[in-house]
Design brief:
By secondary structure, this protein is mainly α. Helices cover 73% and strands 0% of the residues. The two termini are 23 Å apart.
């Protein structure tokens, strides 16, 4: 069975695999939370690679997958989820903070992508990115998502939009 090229698909279990077209749409909170869980696992694997003295190629490949996953995730949040939340919620500051956190993460991602995995500070930058993302995820899951669930917004429709856009972006990444 071929592995999915979606960096958010778990690489731990090859026994269950479906084409993106066969996956049912998830509500927005479920889809974004699943992305969060997958990227957390990827950062944990990266920490293990660093601790185990893995070679540059292995660390660089995983760091590239992390950066791709985060870039896609940030784009769907910024283009679809956050605008919907701005209409549904009365907490502009919380959403502004989330976007600032995305900007900081994007800057680190650009630095990581422009570096060689053997360069000084490479591992440190990937690990600090993981810390930024952990903080950001906690705020989303503990503050934004509960408000979204209480807001009355149609999270199923929003999830379908997020899923469709995510598949488009992942397809574009595969073409590059």
């Amino acid at each position: 069975m071929a592995r999915s090229s979606d960096p958010f698909d778990s690489q731990e279990d090859d026994s269950i695999e479906a084409d993106d077209d066969e996956q049912p749409d998830q509500d927005a909170v479920t889809l974004l939370s699943a992305d969060h869980a997958e990227v957390r696992q990827m950062f944990e694997r990266y920490r293990q690679l660093v601790g185990g003295g893995a070679d540059d190629d292995r660390r660089g490949q995983l760091a590239g997958e992390i950066c791709s996953a985060l870039t896609v995730h940030a784009e769907i949040e910024e283009d679809i989820f956050y605008p919907a939340m701005r209409e549904a919620l009365d907490d502009e500051l919380l959403l502004d903070q989330a976007e600032v956190e995305h900007t900081a993460a994007r800057e680190l991602i650009e630095q990581i992508e422009s570096m060689d995995p053997g360069a000084a500070l490479y591992d440190a930058k990937v690990l600090v990115l993981g810390e930024y993302i952990d903080h950001h995820v906690q705020e989303e899951e503990n503050e934004i998502f509960p408000q979204a669930e209480k807001s009355g917004i149609d999270l199923d429709t929003l999830g379908a939009e997020l899923g469709e856009r995510k598949r488009e972006l992942m397809s574009e990444l595969e073409e590059d």
